[in-house]
Specification:
Blueprint: E1 2-11, E2 14-24, E3 29-34, H1 40-47, E4 55-60, E5 63-64, H2 70-76, E6 78-81, H3 93-100, H4 107-120, H5 122-126, H6 137-149, E7 155-159, H7 167-184, E8 187-192, H8 195-201, E9 204-209, E10 212-218, H9 219-224, H10 226-233
Parallel strand pairs: 3-8, 3-9, 6-7, 7-8
Antiparallel strand pairs: 1-2, 1-4, 4-5, 9-10
The chain binds adenosine-5'-triphosphate.
Residues 11, 14, 16, 34, 36-42, 193 line the site of adenosine-5'-triphosphate (ATP).
Length: 235
């Protein structure tokens, strides 16, 4: 579904990605794990064209997307729930969800997806008239994921869904990530510092260090790898 081929991405003179290659098959959950500053967020930003790569190629369902605008990429079926729960704080929960569907015209489908996300996260249904900025951290994360789902993506990019959340909420969010994949068939590219949980829900994983992929394997093999255990799993 997605082929990221030897991409190099810069912020001015700073090179954040130094030849990254990642492939994601339809129906997979893959995770990218790595320390702070490794380049995980930059990888997602390169895919969604917010920070386009300077060289290399990205293919989505066989078509090059490297030169497209972020809007076009959303329209093709890739949507991102950003790190730091960047929802619209002054808009209500429902208005935030509407924004996620702004490129769509299929009213019936939008209604169907709204029911779907409110069913996934019943707390959002209870809070639908409340301003996004007044939600708790966990609720804002749920809203960010739901807003991304409102674009009805084939590929969902999730950046650090566990960041700053209480363990019980993190567990709930990961259960739902698994559910979105298994029941809705959405392919998921997950960036996480909580490598333990990320590897539990993923099929395969990549490890990134200083802008380079240093390892890739099935999630089970990575979770059992002694180096990974020491460096990322705190075991
Ligand atoms: P974290 O887990 O801490 O979010 P990360 O793996 O997602 O880290 P990135 O945010 O992709 O890492 O950052 C990769 C590198 O690019 C870092 O060295 C960072 O300082 C640099 N970087 C990121 N954003 C910018 C920016 N807007 N301007 C300049 N440098 C940046």
């Amino acid at each position: 579904m997605l082929r990221v081929l030897d991409i190099h991405t810069y912020y001015g003179n700073i090179q954040a990605l130094k030849g990254v290659t990642i492939e994601v098959a339809e129906g997979e959950i893959i995770t990218l794990i790595g320390a702070n500053g490794a380049g995980k967020t930059t990888t997602l930003m390169s895919i969604s064209a917010v920070v386009p790569p300077r060289s290399g190629e990205i293919l989505f369902k066989g078509k090059p997307i490297t030169k497209l605008s972020p809007e076009k990429i959303v329209g093709m079926g890739i949507s991102q729930a950003p790190e730091g729960r960047r929802i619209f704080p002054g808009l209500t929960v429902l208005e935030n969800l509407d924004m996620g569907a702004f490129l769509r015209k299929d009213k019936a489908g939008i209604k169907e997806d709204l029911d779907y996300v409110l069913d996934l996260f019943p707390i959002l249904a209870e809070r639908q008239g409340q301003a996004g900025g007044t939600l708790s951290g966990g609720e804002q994360q749920m809203l960010a994921i739901s807003r991304a789902l409102m674009a009805r993506p084939q590929l969902l990019l999730l950046d650090e869904p566990s960041l700053g959340l209480a363990p019980i909420i993190v567990q709930r969010i990961f259960d739902i990530i698994r559910k979105i994949n298994s029941e809705h068939g959405t392919t998921i590219f997950l960036v996480e510092q909580n490598a333990n949980l990320a590897l539990q829900v993923s099929h395969r994983g990549y490890v990134m260090e200083n802008g380079v992929i240093t390892m890739q394997d099935t999630a089970a093999n990575l979770a059992a790898n002694e180096e990974i255990k020491k460096a990322y799993l705190g075991i």
